From TrEMBL:
EC number of this enzyme: 2.3.1.35, 2.3.1.1
CDD domains: OAT (cd02152)
Organism taxonomic ancestry: Bacteria, Bacillati, Bacillota, Clostridia, Eubacteriales
Identification of the protein by name: Arginine biosynthesis bifunctional protein ArgJ
Residues annotated as catalytic: T190 (nucleophile)
Family: Belongs to the ArgJ family.
HAMAP family: ArgJ (MF_01106)
Source species of the chain: Ruminococcus turbiniformis
UniProt KW tRNA-binding keyword: no
Pathway the protein takes part in: Amino-acid biosynthesis; L-arginine biosynthesis; N(2)-acetyl-L-ornithine from L-glutamate: step 1/4; Amino-acid biosynthesis; L-arginine biosynthesis; L-ornithine and N-acetyl-L-glutamate from L-glutamate and N(2)-acetyl-L-ornithine (cyclic): step 1/1
Role: Catalyzes two activities which are involved in the cyclic version of arginine biosynthesis: the synthesis of N-acetylglutamate from glutamate and acetyl-CoA as the acetyl donor, and of ornithine by transacetylation between N(2)-acetylornithine and glutamate.
Catalyzed chemical reaction(s): N(2)-acetyl-L-ornithine + L-glutamate = N-acetyl-L-glutamate + L-ornithine; L-glutamate + acetyl-CoA = N-acetyl-L-glutamate + CoA + H(+)
Oligomeric form and interacting partners: Heterotetramer of two alpha and two beta chains.
Residues given in the record as substrate binding sites: T153, K179, T190, E276, N402, S407
Length: 407
């Protein structure tokens, strides 16, 4: 596997575009298009929130029907959530407009929205945006990058990733883009992720690879404990790499999953590190666990702890908060066996051994915790399983952003 530059246009046959439709924002692009020159098999995972936005309902029906897709239309600024039948009708109108502008089947047009809940989309602006996107779509990396920027809301950076790998002498590419900064929590978050690949793969294998990998990537991040109404991950495969078809249970399937995991984990970590108001990506890593599930529960509990996140913001080695978060996680472990370390580019430092503080340097701990990427490693000494979860520090800026989000 080789990491390459690019995003949703990295794979063969995919094009993208961005435009300023002025849906909510008046000074930036706010609509994006992903287009494939050939129809794609699709896979998807969606929010676990009972309150689901119109685009989530629309896309779930397309993915589950087996209908192939050639386009995804995404807008930022307004979420099209809690908008009733009118919201669904706007998904339908968007699909029809895209089908007309692109010359494709409207039954397979996927849509995505992110932004303020409860507002209706200005459908005339959406339609005009679709027409503009259809005219501007290109296969170059810059167009993919512009699309990634157009779907941002409170994000401060665009998020892209891409890799290539070989199957039977054919080069296969997977690329993607995502957005997410606030309302981020395990079991899908306020996040949109769009992954494209030119792999020839069965739909069953495509969905299986995505569904399993989401559990170890997007479902292992948290910014603020809120699970959104709009969370969507879509994976489109157009088969243009012309490799031997990938099926479940084959070595080729394992290679595909490895590459997909890299893209998904990279995008997930970028979202966690770009949490609203954040100054640091915070990783919690559990090692020595008896089971994978035990490790995941403990790691998630640490990154979800507001007290721990505040301590990271203050560069304070307040290890008691981490042990406390592990204790209320619901996972069984012996706190008197736990070793805890802090690690970053500034070094690695043991903080506790067998549940008790060691004689460590507070100055060194502060230096380690002052880096833009910080890891807490907890060894619970029960076995050989590990798991990581990702979040960010909690700052005053988070409140400032969310106190006036609608305005």
């Amino acid at each position: 596997m080789q990491v390459i530059e690019g995003g949703v246009t990295a794979a063969k046959g995919f094009e993208a575009a961005a435009t300023a439709a002025k849906i909510k924002y008046q000074d930036r692009t706010d609509m994006a298009l992903i287009y494939s020159v050939k129809p794609c098999k699709t896979a998807g995972t969606f929010t676990t929130n009972i309150v689901q936005a119109a685009p989530v309902k629309w896309d779930k029906e397309i993915v589950r029907s087996g209908q192939k897709s050639q386009a995804v239309i995404v807008n930022s600024g307004i979420a099209n959530a809690c908008t009733g039948e009118e919201g669904i009708s706007y998904c339908r109108e968007t699909a029809r407009e895209a089908a007309s502008a692109l010359g494709i089947d409207e039954k397979g047009v996927l849509v995505g929205s992110t932004g303020v809940i409860g507002m209706q989309l200005p459908i005339d602006r959406i339609k005009a945006g679709v027409q503009a996107l259809a005219k501007e779509k290109k296969a170059d990396a810059e167009s993919g990058s512009e699309a990634a920027e157009a779907i941002m809301t409170t994000d401060t950076v665009k998020k892209e990733a891409a890799v290539t790998f070989e199957i039977g002498g054919k080069t296969v590419t997977i690329g993607g883009m995502s957005k997410g900064s606030g309302m981020i929590h395990p079991n899908m978050c306020t996040m949109l992720a769009f992954i494209t690949t030119d792999a020839k793969i069965s739909k069953k294998a495509l969905q299986a690879a995505l569904s399993s990998d989401v559990e170890d990537t997007y479902n292992m991040i948290s910014v603020d404990g809120d699970t959104s109404t709009n969370d969507t991950v879509l994976l489109l495969a157009n088969g243009m790499a012309d490799n031997k078809k990938i099926r479940i249970g084959t070595p080729e399937f394992e290679k595909f999953k490895e590459a997909l995991h890299y893209v998904n984990e990279t995008l997930a970590k970028k979202m966690a590190g770009d949490g609203e108001g954040a100054t640091a990506l915070f990783e919690a890593k559990i090692i020595g666990a008896g089971t994978k599930n035990q490790a995941k529960i403990l790691a998630k509990s640490i990154v979800c702890s507001n007290l721990t996140k505040a301590a990271i913001a203050g560069h304070d080695a307040n290890w008691g908060r981490i042990l406390c978060a592990m204790g209320y996680s619901g996972a069984e472990f012996d706190p008197e066996k736990v070793d805890l370390y802090f690690e970053s580019a500034a070094g690695k430092l043991k903080i506790i051994e067998n549940g008790t503080a060691v004689d460590y340097s507070e100055e060194k701990a502060t230096e380690i915790l002052s880096q833009p990427e910080v890891t807490a490693i907890a060894d619970i000494k029960e076995g050989g399983e590990t798991a990581s979860a990702w979040g960010c520090d909690l700052t005053h800026e988070y409140i400032s952003i969310n106190a006036d989000y609608r305005s």
